[in-house]
TrEMBL record:
This is NAD(P)-dependent dehydrogenase, short-chain alcohol dehydrogenase family. PANTHER family: OXIDOREDUCTASE, SHORT-CHAIN DEHYDROGENASES/REDUCTASES FAMILY MEMBER. GO terms for biological process: fatty acid elongation. InterPro entries: NAD(P)-bd_dom_sf, Sc_DH/Rdtase_CS, SDR_fam. One of its GO terms (molecular function) is oxidoreductase activity, acting on the CH-OH group of donors, NAD or NADP as acceptor. SUPFAM superfamilies: NAD(P)-binding Rossmann-fold domains. It comes from the Bacteria. The lineage of its organism: Bacteria, Pseudomonadati, Pseudomonadota, Alphaproteobacteria, Rhodobacterales.
Amino acid sequence: MADKIAIVTGAARGIGLATTRLLLRDGFRVAMLDIDAEELHARAEGLSGVRAYPCDVSDPGSVTATFAAVAADMGGIDALVNNAGIADFGPIEETDFTRWRRVMDTNLDGVFLCSQAATPALIARRGVIVNIASISGLRASTLRVAYGTSKAAVIHLTKQQAVELGEYGVRANCVCPGPVRTKLAMAVHSQEIIDAYHDAIPLNRYGSEEEIGEVIAFLCSARASYVTGQIVASDGGFESTGVGLP
Ligand code: NAD
């Protein structure tokens, strides 16, 4: 067994599951965390080198207990991929405080709580954090007040982590995916949004889970040993166009 350990949150499906597979390929053993215990166990059963931990990243008690269990079962942490997230598209006037808080709890507080829980172990192993934000955190739109704001905060949190943890040899980077046909995206992307993305993205298509996962895997690897505090868009060129988010 390799002795490199990664934690991936939101690992039961989508980008988190693809990332788990790529990190296994790269020699990591992976702690898969997800709030959806049923899907998590079903996916983990088919993979060797993983352990499954049902966890709600927005709940401080759940995060503390889960990270203690991972430490007891697997030892240290070399990489933390903060990928768990939810989408909620709506303009300011329609986003009541309950919706706003729900998005912040998972997308922002979850990244903070998991990073804080992992920090001593990451310092001990000169580990790496990769946070998953979104192009919605780089560009404002008429539809994404909560989601976009949560992702912009994750981008800034990444810079804080890079600056604060650099002296311990811990790297922190952020990946901003463009659209990928996951359950999260397809719940909020209307046909109009899909068509607009196809037109606006220079590569004229959605990305795949694996295309995002490969960027995450690179940032987790020693090949990125001098890369920290960076915000990397994996978006088919969308961020370069100056076109507004559909
Ligand atoms: P997905 O819905 O396929 O996967 C998200 C996973 O996170 C699910 O397994 C879900 O159960 C889990 N999760 C949700 N809330 C959780 C919680 N509180 N605690 C633990 N796990 C929780 O979605 P995805 O598209 O693979 O999203 C992964 C990340 O990529 C998210 O942070 C998302 O915002 C980001 N992202 C996705 C896209 C896209 O187009 N799919 C674009 C930009 C950014």
